[in-house]
Amino acid sequence: MAVEVENNENTADTKPAGWRDRAVPIAGALGTGLVAGGTLLALYSRYFATTWPLDDDRISGGRVFGDKEWIDISRLPGTFGTAAWVVGLLVLAVAAAVVWASRDGDYDGWGPAVALAGAAGLFTFPFLAVKYVLPTAYRELRTEHPWFAALPTAIAAGILVTLGSVLVLRLAWEPAKLELLPRRMLALTAAVGLLVSGAVAFVAGATGDDRRNVDHLTATRSETPTVPAGLGAEQYRISLPAQATGWNGATYGDIVPAGNGFVVSSSAGLTAYDGRTGAPRWHYLRKTGDGRPDSVGYISKSLRAAAGGTVVIAEWSELGWYAFDAVTGEILWKNSDFGAHAVDYEDPTRIPRADTAALILFFEDGLQGYDPRTGKHLWTTTTATSDCLQGRTSMLDTDTAIYLLLHCRNRSEIWSVAMTLDTTNGAVLGSREVARTTIADKDSRYVHLASSAVGVSIAWNKPAAGMIVLGRPDEVTSAPVLDRFDAIVAIDPGNTDALAQDWVRGADEGYHRLFVLDRHTGAERYELPGTQDYVGKGEAALLETEIVLVDYALSRDQRKGGFELRSWSRTDGQPIRTLPIAGAEKDCGSAGLIPAPGTLLTYCGTADSLELTGFAAG
């Protein structure tokens, strides 16, 4: 009897494919889409995304490479972006090789190359992540600089390429399994990978959008109120938290009169207030998602008012100088010529306040003027001579002019030259020589240039003590030499009045007396009764009808109390009213007065806050 033997040689090969086998080409197609999307994202990150100059930022890599290893993370975005698109192309080449080898499962000798390309896809990004200590580097770059898209998109591209490589290489191990699924299904799966990559790219791009850190509210344009002519009733109080506290006391935001009232800085940015009501009008603030100021903060003491109070400028760490319309809060320019040239000033307090005509930068070889509304460079002038070197020049700015005091010498004499400039073109408006004496007096001689809000005084001690008081730039050539007194507190450029103070020696102790004089003749007009304390800069103002002063109550009757606001008539110096200011009960560490559009603003710096009080016109 014949026995028929069944041939089972190809049973395993003809067995229907299970879900595990089909998952391999699905994963490979999905990985191909991820790699393709990651490669495109890497190209965008490297060549088209927003970036930021990082200037050799370094962090310690001691936890990975030893305590003395410092890593330059400024190259991280570019390195990750370049590596991702190069490796992505290699892995896409692997995917193409898989398609080519899928029919017979053989790479025809190209196997080692496929393996190397696949290894690049698997290990490049993890290697770079360890090399750059990625979590620390990412946090450093995100907190110390404005956000920029090149960083998160480069990292996202690297992750997409790495994850896609894992899936592609699993299929590359068994390329024949690609034939288990129809090409249309594989194409749709790859498209899904591209869609996933697109979603990741969108999130990464949004993560790098620095506009998310900016809270910018503008206001409608309205008529600017005038500065009050006298002291009226209290209108409002505003309490602002101190910016920082330390062993030397609290620090507060800066304040300038501008726009429809005044502008106050904080570590987060600027807020403008209506002078008549105290209500916020516009603001430009940089904050993190949870409302905290970000590290790219406002630089203290950089706030300036320009163009008659219609423009405010301020400097931000990393970002540079921004200019705003003081009424609406709209950004007029960023950096421009002014910002590019101002980088030579390491300390913003050395940059002069802007006057009504131009922004001014003072360098050792001259002065430069800029348009406040555009930041464009307008003019350059040099005032130095062979005897009066620019490096020995003092500069003082007021709300209306720039005053220079050049210190000059030759072999036998030493003298100074007072000079005023036309800020529209840099031309010298006038100059005069003061305090010429012999070279032997160089160690004991002094010449002092001091400013009030709108004018300056120049005082000297040799060859004979004297001073001149200037309320306008054109007075530099004609102002008479007056007898010296302690200080000029305030000047009215509209007439010849100046508020001065002098020290009076008493039997037990002395006191400071305040009086109004004619700065053209030196004649005293009247004394302000009831004043004894020294009055510093920014504590008094000559208004149209009244003299207003922030004064310390304890100096008069020793009762418990602090600073208060007092006013006198400009006609005869008689007292008019005395009003309390916010924060005085907490003991003001500092106090002052700021005449602003629509208000007389007082400030009191306490241990934990800056207390503002707005007074209406009298």
TrEMBL record:
InterPro entries: PQQ_rpt_dom (IPR002372), Quinoprotein_ADH-like_sf (IPR011047), WD40/YVTN_repeat-like_dom_sf (IPR015943). It comes from Nocardia huaxiensis. PANTHER family: CELL SURFACE PROTEIN, OUTER MEMBRANE PROTEIN ASSEMBLY FACTOR BAMB. Gene3D superfamilies: 2.40.10.480, YVTN repeat-like/Quinoprotein amine dehydrogenase. The chain crosses the membrane at residues 23-44, 82-101, 113-134, 146-173, 185-206. This is PQQ-binding-like beta-propeller repeat protein. The keyword Ubl conjugation does not apply. Keywords: Membrane, Transmembrane, Transmembrane helix. Residues 271-454 form the Pyrrolo-quinoline quinone repeat domain. Pfam families: PQQ_2.
